[in-house]
């Protein structure tokens, strides 16, 4: 697809992950029309590219050096990158040798997504959402969020002079609300949980014609998140860890990471794929249950707010991505997350939010009894605002 600016995208079409039907990549395409209204998984669309073209053009664009714009060939069309002042990505990747030694790993890397503009990897998706909304001539965006996506959207809209409506659960923390207020978002607090806020956001978004920053609805947002994997391959000089671990809520984040690693291999930047481990809280673990072929055990309280999602909207995608990688899913209790949160700070110098510390809690479980001895792993520390700890 030709972009209206100098940024050229190799995007070709959108394919439904549920029924396989294909459609043209309209700027505001959301779910598959064939699958609309059917029970079960929504027809989430997946962006497909011309990889030969992408391989030829990636890195060759003169203006492509800054930020996520250097991956323009493997992203949906975006406005001229010079216009992008608020930059996500290019986050540090560093080793954690003390943790690696304790876990019996050959090497352990940490991808520190707390270093994004709003301290969370959600900014990678928001960058794409706001860019595409601009191309589509829309000035109002919305999202449902446990907090991080909303804070991210609010910040990018503040920068771009766009309006945003954010829908958050009743139990959103006062600290997250104060971030939202600081950026000037219009805040809708649901009477219910994230799932209720999601339904309310979708109803309002449809009725008002706002542009969607819901990652399991707007197929282009996963494309922003996959740049995390692109950077890892770049930062490791083509090397790929044996394991990559990340927390799973709706399933967009880990799916995106898996897709990013597949695409890097597809265009010859790396020669293998990592095994993906998706981590949920013991209190709310629908994807873990579905992976194991067991009934959903229902919901119990968890303080891992960013993954407290009872009805994950991108389950089909993340299950497929993890199976393809020969990976796994596991659930960890809040107490293991709290302990991992302390360990990350005391052994790796990194403050993560509780949800993000779930990745280390899961790695500790996987590595028990030396089962990962000699292997390598990457923890995606998805977010963390220091003042939220405690
Ligand atoms: C959103 C989020 C996740 C999970 O992402 P999903 O796409 O919902 O699976 C993990 N960690 C943090 C900090 C998040 O904000
Ligand atoms: Zn479909």
Characterization of this structure:
This protein has 390 residues and is of the alpha/beta class. Helices cover 36% and strands 16% of the residues. The protein is built from 13 helices and 13 strands. The chain has helices at residues 51-57, 97-103, 122-135, 148-160, 174-183, 194-208, 221-225, 227-235, 252-266, 286-291, 315-324, 334-348, 354-366, and strands at 11-16, 22-23, 45-49, 93-95, 107-112, 140-144, 163-168, 186-189, 211-212, 243-247, 275-281, 328-332, 376-381. A 6-stranded mixed sheet has the order 4-5-13-10-11-12, sandwiched between helices. β10, α9 and β11 form a beta-alpha-beta unit. α4 runs parallel beside α5, α8 (227-235) crosses α9 (252-266) and α12 packs across α13. The radius of gyration is 19 Å and the shape is globular. Mean pLDDT is 93; it is low at 1-6. The structure holds pyridoxal-5'-phosphate and zinc ion. Pyridoxal-5'-phosphate binds at residues 120, 122, 148, 215, 247-253, 306-307, 353, 355-356, 382-383. Pyridoxal-5'-phosphate binds next to α9 and α13.
In short:
By secondary structure, the chain is an alpha/beta fold. Helix 4 runs parallel beside helix 5 (174-183) and helix 9 (252-266) packs across helix 11.
